[in-house]
Amino acid sequence: MTSYKLFVLPGDGIGPEVMAEVEKILAWLSEAGVVRFEVEKGLVGGAAYDAHGMAISEADMDRAKAADAVLFGAVGGPKWDHVPYDVRPEAGLLRLRKELELFANLRPAICYPALADASSLKRELVEGLDLMIVRELTGGVYFGEPKEIIDLGNGQKRGIDTQVYDTYEIERIGRVAFDLARKRRNKVTSSEKRNVMKSGVLWHEVISALHTREYPDVTLEHQLADALGMQLVRRPKQFDVIVTDNLFGDMLSDVASMLTGSLGMLPSASLGEKNPRTETRKALYEPVHGSAPDIAGKGIANPIAMIGSLGMALRYSFNLGDLADRVEQAIAGVLAKGIRTGDIAGDATESVSTAQMGDAILAELQAALA
Ligand code: IPM
Ligand code: MN
User: What is the CATH number of the domain that holds 62?
Assistant: First the structure.
């Protein structure tokens, strides 16, 4: 049996708590001979800062680069609010994305039928929702230079970030979106602010040309990013694949998460370019939610986004689509039984702990694969 190398970075806050549930599933999959994983563990974020004075050590960067896939929990928390900017917890995640060249961030928002009432929107607006946000992840204002605060010498300072995109960056993320759409409902909505931003003008131009040249069979729409935010809460089921830049994608995916019931529900995959020789790609899988310091250590976090991220790893890194389907069905099955963590419980139901939710999903998966 092939064995895959997984590098696990639980991070801070609820990261280690939700990752523990994924580790249970990994251990069982290996033991049961379903698929073998070699799991190595490292430190990232505040945990790495406390140990090494940096947001990720060189040794752990090397391990991340050598792994078949990285599983990432969450980083940050008030404990590290005052550490220097360059070594703040988030810097570890950004360095991983940049150095592994993980330019394509896939953030699916699926509303499980059992959770339609947990959304802040009316049931009929979100029931059956299945959209995919494709967020550009290694460019834009996150990484553009100059990025600095300068002293103007007159008692004023100036903060500068730079939004910058080159043609090739827009094209490669566009291809990811169009290719995905072909396997879904064949529609892409591209989003920028070309009414105020030059990078938006170029984005619109490059996506339109790519569409005409290579993907005329896919329906393409354009929406300004502010309008798209509004449409996401007005009529979210109009969307299939949304492609957008790093910053808009960050914001819009948080909005989309609430459509599904809770931020604790959204998994994500961050992918690099496929190596044509090996047919493999660098990849990192992480829940969209953060470290949630307010509930960390209480054992009540929802592990579904983290477990869903493992599902995405099975699908996109290991070509185990059937097993990924089983993981998603196990999540749906547990939800259908009314098992809920606090964030999706509503007022009526009792809620379970992180570990109880993880155990229930694992039991469902075991039953399905028995
Ligand atoms: C996300 C997070 C990160 C981002 C932070 C932690 C740097 O919000 O993955 O959405 O802004 O990309
Ligand atoms: Mn975010």
Answer: 3.40.718.10
